[in-house]
TrEMBL record, chains A, B:
Residues binding ATP: G116, D117, R145, S212
Function: Catalyzes the ATP-dependent phosphorylation of thiamine-monophosphate (TMP) to form thiamine-pyrophosphate (TPP), the active form of vitamin B1.
Residue ranges annotated for the PurM-like C-terminal domain, each copy included: 149-313
Keywords for this protein: ATP-binding, Kinase, Magnesium, Metal-binding, Nucleotide-binding, Thiamine biosynthesis, Transferase
Binding locations of Mg(2+) 1: T41, D42, D117
Gene: thiL
UniProt binding sites for Mg(2+) 4: D25, S40, D70
Protein name stated in the entry: Thiamine-monophosphate kinase
CDD domains xrefs: ThiL (cd02194)
Residues the entry annotates as binding Mg(2+) 5: D213
Annotated GO biological process: thiamine biosynthetic process; thiamine diphosphate biosynthetic process
Protein's organism: Rhodoferax ferrireducens
Residues annotated to bind Mg(2+) 3: D25, D70, D210
Coiled-coil ranges per UniProt: none
Length: 332, 332
C-alpha cells in the first residue's frame, strides 16, 4: 500500500464544514464573522509520550484528546484538525484501529480532519487543532492564562494523579493489581478533554489552562502570566485521587498502600491529567457550580489566588507544607 | 536549559498580527472578513527528509519553505505558522542556527510563529502553516488541483531536478565536483517557495500544485483531481536543468557527464523541487507571462491538458517516449 492509498483508505472522509478538506495542497476554512480561530499543536513521540505497544485505538483517541484539551482550556469550540504521521511502516490493522479511535473522538466533538502529511520514520503523531471563540463587542471570549486576580478561587476539574499512577505501575515502580491498573490506565491512555466545561466557563472563569505536566507546575504558568501568587490546599487536591471511588476501591479491595506523600506527589505533580485548572472571582461561585452541572464535569475548589508572589502549599488545616512536587520537563 | 527556557530563548517573539501568540494553551487568529484560511502541514524526519548533519540554518529555512510552498500552490498569502519540534537534546548552537534560518524566511514573508510544542525524541520537525485567500462574490480565489480543463497549457516555474542531483551526489550515486555540488545543494537544502508567483496566478491559473515528490507524479494528482489527461514535452522539462546556466557550467567546467535519460529522470521525477506546476487556458498566455514578470519567477510551458485520460510523454519533436519516471512514495 502506497502513501496516497494509505491516506485515501484510512484518513480521507467527506468534507463537513470546511470549504476544502484532505487532498489538495491546502485545506480551506471559512471562519464565521467576529470569531477568533484558536490554534494549538501537540506532538506525541513513541517511547516518550506513550509506550510503543499502546492500544492503537486508545492512541488515536489520546492524540486528538490532548489537543482538544488545549481548546477546552481556551473555551474554544472544536472545529477541525490536521494530522501529520510518521510511521515505521504500513501496519493496516494498527492504522485501522488508530483511525477508529481518532475519528470516534473527533465525531463526538464535530471536529473534522481537513489535512495532513504521512511519512516513513520513527512513530510520531503531530496534530494541530482549530477551534472557534466568539469575539463580543471587540472582546475575545477566550479563557487565557493571564486573567487570574488576587482573591480569585482556584479550581480543578475531575481528578488528578490517576494517569501517573498507571504510568508508575506500567514502569514497575508501583505494584498495582490488574483491575486497578486497568481503571487507572484508562485515564492515562484515553483521557477526556473537558471541552464542555471550557465552553461553560466562558465569561465565568478569569484564567484557565489544562493540566498536562503536573498540576502545581502548570499552575505556575497561570501565576507567572497573571503576575499573582497562590495558596493551594494540597489535601483538597490530593483527596481527588486519594478519596476517589477508584482509590477507595483500590485501597479497600486491592490493598494498595501508598504513603500520604506518594498520593500527594501523584495529585500535585503527576502529569497527563488533561483536567482544567482555572480561577474565578469568589462572587461567581454559583456560576461555576452551574457550569460544572451543565457540563456534567465535577470541579473542586483547591486554593486561592493572592497578591503575594509565589506558590504556597498547606494541608487541610491550613498548616504550611514544603513544595517538593516538581513538574515534568522534557529537557530537565 | 529546560523546555520553557528553550521556547522563550529561541522561539518566543512579540506578537505581530495574531491576537495571541506563543505561550498560552492556544494561539488566537482573527481572520479578515470574506477570507478563506488556507492550512497545510508538513513533517520532516531526520534521515528521511534531510541528513542529520544538515546545516541547521538551512534546515530551519527548508522546514518552513516546504510549507510556504503549499500556500503558494493555493495562491494564499502567508499569515502564521505553528512549530512542533522533537529534539534528541538541547544543542544551543544548533537551535540558534535553526531559529535564525526559520525566522529569516518567516520574516521575508510576514509569516509569524504563533505557537508550538517542544519534546524530547528523534529529530522531527512538524510545521502547520496558515494563509489567507480572498473569497470574492462567494467564490474562493484559491488555486486548486481540480480546475485543469482540456486545451489548457501546462507550465512549471523555475528549474527541475537540481535538488535530486545534489541528493544523488551526496548519496554517492553521482560524482559531482565540489563547486557544482555546492550550487545544486542550495536547491536541495534551501528551496525558494514560489509565494509571489502563486499570488500573481490567482484568477489566471486554472489549477496548481507544488512539485515535491517528482514532477510527473505530482502532475498525476492534477490529472486525477481534474478528470483530464496531458501530453508533456519531456525535453522542454528536461532542458530546465540540462540547459540551465548551472548545467552548462557544470558540463563545461566540471565535465559532468550524464546520459540523456539520467537528465530526464532528474527533471521528470527528481522530487524536492518546490516549483509550481500549473495549468492555464491558452487565451491567458500573456497574463501568465505578466505573472511571471511581476513575481520575477521564470515559468516554462511544458505541455498540454487533453480530454484523453492518462499522461503521454514526447520528445521535442513530438515523438512518443515511454514514461518510466516513477514518483517518490514514502511507503512504496
Amino acid at each position: 500500500m502506497g502513501e496516497f492509498d494509505l491516506i485515501a483508505r484510512f484518513f480521507k472522509r467527506p468534507v463537513q464544514r470546511a470549504a476544502l478538506g484532505v487532498g489538495d495542497d491546502c485545506a480551506l476554512l471559512l471562519p464565521r464573522p467576529d470569531t477568533h480561530i484558536a490554534i494549538s499543536t501537540d506532538m506525541l513521540v513513541s517511547g516518550r509520550h506513550f509506550f510503543p505497544e499502546t492500544d492503537p485505538m486508545r492512541l488515536g483517541h489520546k492524540s486528538l484528546a490532548v489537543n482538544l484539551s488545549d481548546l477546552a482550556a481556551c473555551g474554544a469550540q472544536p472545529l477541525a484538525f490536521t494530522l501529520a504521521l510518521s510511521l515505521p511502516g504500513v501496519d493496516e490493522p494498527w492504522l485501522a484501529a488508530f483511525a477508529q479511535g481518532l475519528f470516534a473522538l473527533a465525531d463526538a466533538h464535530g471536529c473534522e480532519l481537513i489535512g495532513g502529511d504521512t511519512t516513513a520514520g520513527p512513530l510520531n503523531i503531530c496534530i494541530t487543532v482549530f477551534g472557534e471563540v466568539p469575539v463580543l463587542a471587540g472582546r475575545s471570549q477566550a479563557l487565557l492564562r493571564s486573567g487570574a486576580r488576587p482573591g480569585d478561587d482556584l479550581y480543578v476539574s475531575g481528578t488528578l494523579g490517576e494517569a501517573r499512577l498507571a504510568l508508575d505501575a506500567l514502569l514497575g515502580k508501583i505494584n498495582l493489581p490488574a483491575e486497578a491498573l486497568a481503571a487507572a490506565r484508562l485515564r492515562l491512555e484515553q483521557p477526556t478533554p473537558r471541552v464542555a466545561l471550557g465552553l461553560a466557563l466562558r465569561g465565568v472563569a478569569s484564567a484557565a489552562l489544562d493540566v498536562s505536566d503536573g498540576m502545581l507546575g502548570d499552575l505556575g504558568h497561570i501565576l507567572q502570566s497573571s503576575g499573582v501568587g497562590a495558596t493551594v490546599d494540597a489535601d483538597a487536591a490530593t483527596e481527588l485521587i486519594a478519596f476517589s471511588p477508584f482509590y477507595i476501591r483500590a485501597a479497600g479491595q486491592f490493598g494498595i498502600k501508598l504513603s500520604e506523600d506518594q498520593w500527594r506527589t501523584l495529585a500535585l505533580s503527576g502529569g497527563d491529567d488533561y483536567e482544567l485548572l482555572f480561577t474565578a472571582p469568589a462572587h461567581v461561585r454559583e456560576a461555576v457550580a452551574q457550569a460544572s452541572r451543565s457540563s456534567q464535569t465535577p470541579v473542586t475548589r483547591i486554593g486561592q489566588i493572592e497578591t503575594q508572589q509565589g506558590l504556597r502549599l498547606t494541608n487541610r488545616q491550613g498548616q504550611p507544607l514544603a513544595n517538593t512536587y516538581a513538574s515534568f520537563d522534557h529537557f530537565a
